[in-house]
Specification:
alpha/beta, six-stranded mixed beta sheet, five-stranded parallel beta sheet, 26 strands, 19% strand, binds beta-D-glucopyranose
């Protein structure tokens, strides 16, 4: 039975308490009497249990699909199951905290670590994060949701200052974390390396204490990203608990505690949170566990089957015929040497790896013939020979399946990409092959998205396979042959070209700063609002069957709305559809994206089967963050609701009228005359003042005239400086009168 914390802390010396706030080594904390050692290991899609860094010497673990692949399944139940599987392996390996999931927003496709992140949309990222955390923690293992916050690039990642306004943070970069914290109660949150508006995330009191704990109610441990703490004492004061890795700087913490610069209660708080973390794991753990790696591999396979996105399928080119004498050329080194995860801290020492080539051969035998087609390192001489061989094979086959993608050296934690193109040698190979056959299918393996506009006309079908973990090869083979039906959807828009991405001119910044100048207009929020063409829109993904949408009803409910509609599988194979609900707000007082995803559901339907879905939307689905009012606001009026298969394939349209919610705007000396006139109390106060200032009548306030419109735009305070009879302080007096009258208007009689 663990002792109560109050009993533990008095026994600890100041040195011990100071020591608790940092690691003992790379992956664990220091044990002290009453608080045991806690171990933490990467990472988001499988475990990497090593002594220091790298992967050598690591114990084998199952490599599940990285976030890019698993996220594209849009299936939280599946993601939860993967979380449970990771949690089981963590238990078996004695890991207390799994360092993941990573749920940062894909602001630019150039971020080298996008393969570890889920989406350009906070709802999709948050739903994924919640499911993974719930799954991991169901096994009595803690999760560490990361990297908090606004860590959307690798360039200068340890120092760059993200210059971003609060509305953009609240609407785009924080909601996924908020959802995970409020709904899944992660044991730990990992703060990021970068600065936010000049303050390191690890020292950011607004972020780590006011938002995370005071507003969202987080009660776990805030751990630093590895090496993210610059000033140990400032970080502790701001709300960081544990600096990782290693104990550097403990002497500085101790001296600050001894001198009183760092209040002792801050260290008591750290001890208390670490104790709670250890207790939580001990209490919910179910004892020792044996891992059945075959069963874990099966889960990795099921997860991999739902990630690939069928971007295009001209004349039902896919699935490939499973029987008969069709000869299939499998071309591309990726078919034999799969790229199934990214490099860096998330790399998992897989228990085994399926290749698409073996899997296809296993399924349809010697109708499959292989040519590597290109080298990963772009060796020109070797590529010329391989390309000629592939051309001969393609010419002599009925179908050619080309496995293209990004070699390992193209993307990783630690650096960003410079282009979203496929390597030149692969594009040249595609051209060569397409010159001898029209029957070309392209299968892609890439963590960050690649542009398709310049080459897609050469392919009859494109299956975007992302990175799919150790069972990805088998999954791709089954999808190509129609043994499974693709059901992945894009969690990020595929732009026509890099130059059209909204962060293009601001990414990755310079001289220690990156300005989030595109604000909330990230991904489809930008393309759809601007009406720009994209190659493939957010939410897009085809199936071997077809779905119909019908019967939309939208009804206002407490503060939000209830949306109901029916999805029917009208084709002749079983399949799954991700139905998406988008909300539009054209009447808002401030600029908003054309529409935003507010809900989604994945439904599995047999041929001819229908399912009615009812989705409740709360007021947040309609709200924006007001910088002036520091709160979520719903403006009174009509909102549009659109339901469909992608942000650009909306099949059903409805509307709902909602009342205003959130604090009302307050008039100030800076409020324009128009706002004063529009407000009943403000107008009364203003008209009263005008009546007493005879020369104020010289200012024409009739809004039907140009002059009136011009004056309407002038702030009250500024206008009064031009009225000769207005005494100094007149504007402030009007504001005071307005405040007093407004209070009287809302107070019940007798107060
Ligand atoms: C990464 C984290 C990771 C940590 C420990 C850092 O470089 O940013 O995601 O969990 O290393 O490996």
């Amino acid at each position: 039975m663990p002792r109560e914390l109050d009993e533990v802390i008095p026994d600890l010396s100041l040195e011990q308490k100071a020591g608790l706030a940092s690691g003992a080594d790379f992956w664990s904390t220091k044990p002290v009497p009453g608080i045991r050692r806690i171990t933490m290991n990467d990472g988001p899609h499988g475990l990497r249990v090593v002594a220091d860094i790298g992967i050598s010497g690591a114990k084998p673990a199952t490599c599940f699909p990285p976030a890019v692949g698993l996220g594209a399944s849009w299936n939280p139940a599946l993601q939860r199951e993967v979380g449970e599987a990771i949690g089981r392996e963590a238990r078996a390996l004695g890991v207390d905290v799994v360092l993941g999931p990573g749920i940062n927003i894909k602001r630019s496709p150039l971020c080298g670590r996008n393969f570890e992140y889920v989406s350009e949309d906070p709802l999709v990222a948050g739903a994924f994060g919640q499911a993974l955390v719930e799954g991991i923690q169901s096994q009595g293992v803690g999760a560490s949701v990361k990297h908090f916050a606004a860590n959307n690039q690798e360039t200068d990642r340890m120092h760059v200052s993200v210059e971003v306004d609060e509305r953009t943070l609240r609407e785009i970069y924080l909601p996924a974390f908020e959802r995970v914290v409020k709904n899944a109660h992660p044991a730990t949150v990992m703060c990021s390396y970068n600065r936010i508006n000049g303050v390191y995330a690890s020292q950011n009191e607004w972020l780590l204490t006011r938002v995370l704990r005071d507003e969202w109610g987080f009660d776990g441990v805030v751990v630093s990203d590895w090496g993210a703490v610059v000033d140990r004492v400032e970080a502790l004061k701001a709300g960081l608990d544990l600096k990782m890795p290693t104990a550097t700087g403990d002497d500085r913490v101790l001296a600050a505690a001894q001198s009183g610069e760092l209040p002792e209660f801050v260290l008591d708080r750290v001890a208390s949170r670490l104790e709670m973390l250890a207790q939580r794991a001990d209490a919910s753990r179910l004892g020792p566990i044996d891992i059945d790696f075959d069963a874990q591999h099966e889960i990795a396979l099921r997860a991999a089957l739902e990630g690939p996105v069928l971007l295009k399928n001209e004349n039902a080119a896919l699935p490939l015929p499973e029987t008969g004498s069709t000869r299939i050329a499998v071309v591309g080194e990726f078919a034999r040497t799969p790229r199934y995860q990214g490099s860096g801290s998330s790399q998992v020492p897989s228990t085994r790896v399926d290749t698409a080539l073996d899997a296809l051969t296993g399924l349809i035998g010697d109708r499959v013939r292989f040519a590597p087609g290109f080298t990963f390192d772009g060796d020109a001489d070797a590529d010329a020979e391989l390309s000629a061989e592939a051309r001969r094979l393609a010419a002599d086959s009925d179908w050619t399946v080309l496995f293209l993608g990004l070699p390992d050296s193209y993307e990783s934690e630690g650096f960003d990409r410079e282009t979203i193109s496929l390597p030149d040698n692969q594009l040249a190979l595609l051209e060569t092959v397409a010159a001898v056959t029209r029957r070309v299918v392209v299968v892609l393996s890439n963590g960050g998205l690649v542009e398709t506009e310049s080459w897609e006309f050469r392919a009859r079908a494109i299956l975007e396979g992302w990175l799919l973990g150790q069972a990805g090869g088998q999954a791709l083979a089954q999808l190509l042959l129609g043994r499974a039906n693709p059901s992945g959807k894009l969690t990020e828009s595929i732009p026509v070209k890099l130059e059209e991405t909204s962060a293009y001119t601001n990414f990755p910044g310079c001289e220690g700063q990156v300005v989030y100048g595109e604000r909330i207009y990230v991904g489809y929020r930008y393309y759809d609002t601007r009406g720009l063409p994209v190659s493939y829109p957010f939410g897009h993904g085809l199936s071997y069957t077809e779905f119909e949408y019908s019967g939309l009803t939208v009804t206002a409910s407490e503060g939000g709305a209830s949306v109901a509609f029916t999805v029917t599988n009208v084709g002749d194979v079983a399949g799954a559809e991700v139905a998406q609900v988008y909300r539009g707000d054209r009447h808002s007082a401030i600029d908003r994206p054309l529409h935003e995803l507010v809900a989604f559901r994945k439904v599995f339907l047999e041929p001819g089967e229908s399912q009615q879905l009812t989705i409740d939307l709360d007021s947040r689905a309609f709200a924006y963050w007001s910088i002036a009012r520091h709160d979520w606001i719903v403006d009174e009026g009509l909102f549009t609701i659109a339901v469909g298969a992608s942000s650009r394939d909306l099949r059903l349209h409805g509307e709902v009228r909602l009342a205003a919610q959130g604090p009302a705007p307050r008039l100030t000396v800076f409020s324009p005359i128009a706002d004063w006139i529009a407000d009943p109390v403000g107008s009364q106060v203003l008209q009263g003042a005008i009546a007493q200032l005879p020369d104020a009548h010289a200012f024409q306030l009739d809004p039907t005239t140009n002059e009136g419109r011009m004056f309407a735009a002038i702030p009250l305070g500024h206008l009064l400086t031009m009225v000769p009879s207005a005494p100094s302080g007149a504007a402030e007096q009007l504001v005071a009168a307005y405040e007093q009258l407004s209070r009287a208007a809302v107070s019940p009689p007798g107060e």
